[in-house]
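My current task is to audit a protein record that another person submitted. I need someone to confirm that the token line plausibly describes how this chain folds. Take the sequence as given and treat only the tokens as open to question. This is what I was given:
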Amino acid sequence: MRDGTRTGKSMKHRIGQWFKNAKIQKKIMIIYICIGTIPILLLGLFASGQERKTLMEREHRNIEDSVSQGASQLKSQILVYNNLSDYIAFNQPISDVLIGDYDNIFSMYEQYTATVDPVLSSLKYFNPNINQITIYLDKNIVKHDTMVDSLQTIEGEKWYRQNESSLSQKVKWIIDAENKTSFSARTMPIMEQNKQKGILYLDVNYDSLFAGFDDISRDSYGLYIVDKKGNVLFEKDTFSENTASKNNTKTTAKKSQEKRLSFPALKKKMEAQENGKKSNYLIVSADAGVDDWKIIVYQPQKMIAREIQTLLVLVMGIIAVCIITSVVASLAFSRFVVRDIKRLRDNMQAVEEGNMELMVTSDAGDEVGSLIRGFGSMLGEINRLIHEVYESKLTQRKSEMTALQAQINPHFLYNSLSLINWKALEAGQQDISKITLALSSFYRTSLNRGKNVLTIEKEIENMKSYLEIQLCMHDNDFDVIMDIDEEILPYQTLNLLLQPLVENAIDHGIDLKEDGRGYIKIIGRKDAENIYLTVEDNGVGIEPEILSSILEFKTKGYGVRNVNQRIRLYYGEEYCLRIESEVGKGTRCTINIPQKSNDPADGTS
């Protein structure tokens, strides 16, 4: 007994040790065969009992989805036509022409041709399923094509007599399933305000209106669309189509007639089904979403049961094939998985040896492919960070060189401006003296002895000098508003951050403004951690497509883009320039920077 127990444990240990030492490809193959075959067998046994229920539920859902899609398409079409009706009914120019009194027919014809014809013709052109658009007027007029006619033309028609009292400004749809006509009618609200009566008649193609229900199911079915009173608006079935395709005989025609239900008969079956009685038809009803219309679809359950029997035979055959092919598939699958793992191992070894430029990718959608792509992304990110640090250093050095180049003999510039100022004073030219002093102050602050930072107070003073020059250049035709919180004045900022934004607001904002007086507003605020500097104008604004790319290299806005780059390089990626604009109302540019105190070492004192 003990020997048998020891032998069993030894055998179990040897099998476990063998499986542990086996290669991944062999492990995958064994596990795939064992685990893959058992669920397939269980699935076959379970499917025989559940297939009928599952297929019935699926067929019910499919019909519901198809009905929902058809209803959505119908609702969308109705909405489009209602919107077109609203556009015509509330069109002031058209109503004015229709209301007007004319001395002669020629004058009326000219007005109708110039105003009514283009609108109605274009609507029919872009909506080919519209058969007719006619406005019927309650006055003595000569018929104008099919677009304008006298109300007397339709007063004798059945639909008008039945619906005259219920017609209002709201669109009313009138459907005639027997004659296959569909149109909407409403009163003209603007004409009613002027004590005149007008009826807008919009006739659409009946078949196109209900085209969303052409292919509602892949098998035989019948469909009704009814209104809240039970009137049939649309009906369709495919029983004759499907039986004729199989056998064009009197017998099959009789069978198809037996499957087809009249609406009263269908209504009785629906009531019986609601009371819990079994029915030999699968019936699905749903709201159409239009004027309390309801969609009802019915399908014989025999048609579904026939599909179930065929499907069960097919499922059992597929199960047998799956069991046979699982062995072959396991071998191919294990080789496929191990191949990608080996390739990943080789790539990792290459990186370990220093090959950082290696391109690693995979088009596989499984976990191994995701692992390979993750390794490739990580390697690419490492390379990107290396290049980013290198390019950042180059950009910083280039900016420093640009700042140094800006300091071209400032003393000569100041002395020259001072001389111009004295000459202007001697000549009594106060305006020239004023501009010269503002220009001298602007360049003195801008150059800032070659320093890249200065206090916000000096930056604001610099902007005041710059705006003083611009006001002289523009004959004071715009206003300047300064709204600066005094608490932020001692903090430091980068030199010349506001000037490009102010210049852009003048050149591309208020200079292009055609009406009203322009203004430029500079706002300075702070919160617990950051400072916000805003330049706002009421100019013409920026188009959305230009606004979305103004901070990118593909645009010409170098000055504004340079401000954003300088902020990000100096303070970090979390600080930037944000631009908000609305065409015709103006633009708002906001800079956010961290709160940094005045530091003499930075040259901001």
